[in-house]
Amino acid sequence: MQPKKLLRLFKALQKKGLDTTYQNGAYRVALANRADGPVAEVLLPPDFPVEVKALKQLAQLAEVHHPNGGKVTALCATPDFHPGDAGVAIGSVVQTKDMVIPAAVGSDINCGMRLHTTELNLDRFLAGKDRLVALLRGDYLLGSRDVTQTAASMQALFSEGLIGWTSAMRDNPSGMATRCDFHQLECELDRVFANGSMAGDPRWAPPALLPDAGLVRDDGLGTIGGGNHFVEFQVVEELLDTRAAYRAGIKQGQVAFMIHSGSRHVGKFIGKHWRMRAEAAWPKGLPYPTSRLFPLSQADNPDLVAAYLEAEATAANYAFLNRMLLAEIMRQRMRQVFGEVAAPLVYDLPHNITLPRGDGWITRKGACPAESGQWVIIPGSMGTASYLLEGLGSERFHASASHGAGRARSRFAMSRGGADKSEAALGLTGVTCITLREERRIEEAPNAYKPIQPIIKTQQAAGMVRPVAKLRPILTFKA
DNA sequence: ATGTGC
Q1: pTM attached to this predicted model
Q2: For the segment A54-80, what is each residue's pLDDT rounded down to a tens digit?
Q3: Strand B close to A411 by CB, under 7 A
Q4: How many other CB atoms sit within 10 Å of the CB of residue A60?
């Protein structure tokens, strides 16, 4: 969208009675029609496209409140902001007091990023690339991974996350876990957000994953998933903050790998269950919110709020293990091809999660936590650079940052008949992407996404993040 | 996001 058109949109919002001003690179919108209503900061690079639908969804989110107590106290939108399917835009950060909104996270609970460096340089990597691809193609795309485990270790995972799972698995490993280096995994727990271990409970997990006896064959763990999720080899192209890079253990010219995935069907199950629960818990006799975004109120039912957060944590724990196992598959195959190559974890973080902050909660949907000193990982599309950054804890943006470039064109727009599907038009020139289905390459092509550079620059200028390293893609796997 | 739907 051109700036003029964007301006017209904000003028239209003003006409609706919304107080709208432009201050220091962000549109500041007072979104609720009341004096104490929340203000939304919408950070956009100059001349940047944004969909009206996404802004309408943000305005809708601002209006969520519970008649028995609970309201939205502030919102912001990151520059990769785009419309979401479930009525909540991707790139929404919402601060709530005395309530939580299950729909604000949605189904992709603890979708997030994981970054590893490796000891390999580009030449050594390229020499083994074909063998590695042959092995990984089977692991990632054909379903041959083996993460069979006991119901007890699944329970430990759901209730205690990675700490629970590693201690349950290390003395009696099964499946691919027999080849895991548990000492390494435990040493790396402090490089996972919240140690990858949140307070969950197996009672919220899909029952099929928790049989009374015998082994669990779960077909979700160690899988990439669809959409923008990927596993990718990259090379560290440029260090933008050498001191921070040293702390992260990342060196120029190194081959690295990055993982973007979430809680798969577990998050879908838990997310859907709790959107329905929140609807059922809405006070009888009162009109439904037209947005159908139902909050859970602390004053109305504190146990239900606690149970929801526990359920979200249960799915989050599963996502942490999913990304850890995707990385383990990578390490195990790299050992097969290159011998004993170290591939240490830099960081693993969620960008789809509810967390306590101040005297309320922050729900980020497609936005990274970026508290002061926290690592932030922002992926580009499969043809463009990804970044490691450091959070600066900007209060104006609720210590948050974007989670990617943001979609510019829908999957349908990319794949429909008549669309130019040449490599040049897709922006795929020089990109090696391994997919099971050709349509994924088209739907997820670089030109389906907005440019990453202005998104990073704008957030840097706004004082949200400091870039540490730029990573260029070499080889992408997409399911 | 989801072995799904435009």
Answers
A1: 0.95
A2: 888 998 899 999 999 999 999 999 999
A3: yes
A4: 18
